[in-house]
């Protein structure tokens, strides 16, 4: 088999990264920031389609296609990788396709250099600069880097279609724990009171129908996200963000003013902050 060392190195990096990440998370859970991009798409169905179908196909064509040696994949790599950099607002990564283009005669003659640069770009494009808040937050990047090496090996030995299948399987394996947590959350009822506002909530399964009722003094919603709940107050800017770890969870909300007065949105904002469902948005 060709370039078997890619498989071995990729698996070794993945194993070491998993151990380091696990130790950091176990001993210092607050030091490991959630750098995944699960929160980038609010709609769970759209997220699954993009992650399990679109991403494996497009990313393999863009990043691994050049290893097949066919000319049509080279412009696809230049344009596709540049597109990813712009869409993810990682403009600094545009230096990679520029280097590939300007020094293609040198870079593409060295398989090791091509593999490292290509895989580094593939790994970094999954994150934002803002994700790297400390040394520990760089650790998850090595997951993508190791998988990039393995997928190059699959492409070289089994073709681009097989690498798409492997990419799908890997994404599904990473998503499965998340999907199980979303569909079978710990259903804990919570009650918050502030002034005349009574606020009840509990987590519920992510898949199913959504229902809601809105009036001047009450809001009831079933199986909605935190962002969807805040959308019931279109004329008020909460100036908060939902943590990525909570973005996909669905909740049953019940909010009412016990005096049947118009709901005070300032109180609602404060309750959301106190319940740790949201964080203050930083300018």
Automatic annotation (TrEMBL):
Molecular function GO terms recorded: endopeptidase activity
The keyword NADP appears for this protein: no
GO biological process, one term: CAAX-box protein maturation
Highest taxon in the source lineage: Bacteria
Any matching Pfam family: Rce1-like
InterPro entries: Rce1/LyrA-like_dom
Keyword Transmembrane helix: yes
TM spans (from-to): 6-26, 38-58, 78-103, 110-129, 135-156, 168-185
Domain annotation CAAX prenyl protease 2/Lysostaphin resistance protein A-like: ranges: 44-172
Keyword annotations from UniProtKB, A to Z: Membrane, Transmembrane, Transmembrane helix
Stated name of the protein: CAAX prenyl protease 2/Lysostaphin resistance protein A-like domain-containing protein
Species of provenance: Flavobacterium cyanobacteriorum
């Amino acid at each position: 088999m060709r370039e078997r060392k890619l498989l071995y190195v990729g698996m070794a990096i993945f194993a070491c990264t998993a151990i380091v990440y696990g130790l950091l998370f176990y001993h210092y859970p607050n030091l490991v920031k959630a750098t995944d991009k699960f929160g980038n798409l609010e709609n769970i169905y759209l997220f699954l389609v993009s992650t399990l179908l679109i991403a494996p196909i497009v990313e393999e064509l863009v990043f691994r296609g050049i290893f097949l040696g066919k000319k049509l994949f080279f412009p696809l790599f230049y344009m596709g990788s540049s597109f990813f950099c712009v869409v993810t607002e990682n403009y600094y990564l545009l230096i990679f396709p520029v280097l590939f283009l300007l020094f293609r005669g040198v870079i593409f003659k060295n398989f090791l250099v091509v593999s490292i640069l290509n895989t580094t770009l593939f790994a970094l494009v999954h994150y934002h600069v803002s994700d790297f808040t400390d040394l520990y937050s760089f650790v998850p990047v090595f997951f993508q880097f190791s998988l990039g090496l393995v997928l190059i090996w699959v492409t070289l030995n089994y073709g681009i279609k097989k690498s798409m299948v492997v990419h799908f399987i890997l994404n599904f394996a990473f998503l499965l724990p998340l999907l199980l947590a979303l569909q079978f959350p710990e259903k804990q009822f919570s009650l918050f009171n502030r002034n005349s506002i009574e606020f009840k909530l509990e987590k519920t399964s992510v898949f199913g129908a959504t229902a809601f009722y809105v009036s001047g003094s009450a809001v009831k919603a079933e199986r909605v996200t935190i962002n969807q709940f805040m959308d019931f107050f279109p004329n008020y800017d909460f100036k908060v963000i939902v943590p990525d770890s909570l973005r996909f969870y669905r909740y049953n909300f019940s909010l009412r003013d016990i005096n049947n007065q118009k709901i005070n949105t300032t109180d609602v904002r404060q309750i959301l902050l106190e319940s740790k469902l949201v964080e203050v948005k930083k300018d």
